[in-house]
Amino acid sequence: MCPKNASYYGNRAATLMMLSRHREALEDSQQAVRLDDTFMKGHLREGKCHLSLGNAMAASRCFHRVLELEPDNSQAQQEVKNADSVLEYEKMAELGFEKHDFRMVVFCMDRALESASACHRFKVLKAECLAMLGRYPEAQSVASDILRMDATNGDALYVRGLCLYYEDCIDKAVQFFVQALRMAPDHEKARLACRNAKALKAKKEDGNKAFKDGNYDAAYELYSEALTIDPNNIKTNAKLFCNRGTVGSKETTFEVCEKCKKCGVLGVLTLLIQLCTSLGPFLVLMFLQCSCHFRVCKTNGHWIDNP
């Protein structure tokens, strides 16, 4: 009835914000200030919507426009500080990600999300870093929350696949990577992860086949090649080390020191399992001058870790 009334758009925007429908609220706020550029509440609400959605730069411009109209507006002054904080946390997170300091990124995103609660980009970055830290349930929870609101979000699909990939659920992971690429064909991370997942599965299967056929040299090489594909995939690599150790036991060729060096990554327990599998014929094994400095002995039929 009154399509030219800025206040009506502003009031509807306020209602939509209360319902957490920030994108729709943003459209109404922008329409309100297009109709009346001096409508202070319209600029303020537009800024709040931008900030909630993670666009701190645009939010800051809106809040400064409010201050031009009302220099003493305390709410706008506080929101400018909030927008500046989000920008700062964004920069810190970017630097942290480049340095693989994923804990720092998670911290920064948690702080940024206090002001930008509806920003999927921040949530996805946090989820990806949680996955890189091995905190898969938390990462999957964040990604699933996003997908419930936006089933076509390629980044969230990628994170879901990444968690499954690192938990050695290769087939399911590939499905999510393919779906992510369907939603975002230029998603480079999903493309690389999908390629690695398929290559890892193929190499492992080829190694298993060679082992079953009694071709131990080929199996050893295939497992070794598989181990170079993705050093970050701890669970799959642990199985590959175990398989390669089993192959070594068949040829009496053991990489004890090399395995010992890997224990810092794979964990002592995993290493012990590998050694028990591959070095079963030996009664006593002592590892000296290795990076982890521990010995494994078999006493009375039990393996003992002596730091």
Automatic annotation (TrEMBL):
Keyword Transmembrane helix: yes
Start-end of each TPR repeat: 40-73, 154-187, 200-233
Pfam families the UniProt entry points to: TPR_16 (PF13432), TPR_8 (PF13181)
Keywords attached to this entry: Membrane, Repeat, TPR repeat, Transmembrane, Transmembrane helix
Transmembrane segments: 265-288
Alphabetized InterPro entries for the sequence: TPR-like_helical_dom_sf (IPR011990), TPR_rpt (IPR019734)
Name used for this protein in its record: DnaJ (Hsp40) homolog, subfamily C, member 7
Organism: Oncorhynchus kisutch
Highest classification ranks of the organism: Eukaryota, Metazoa, Chordata, Craniata, Vertebrata
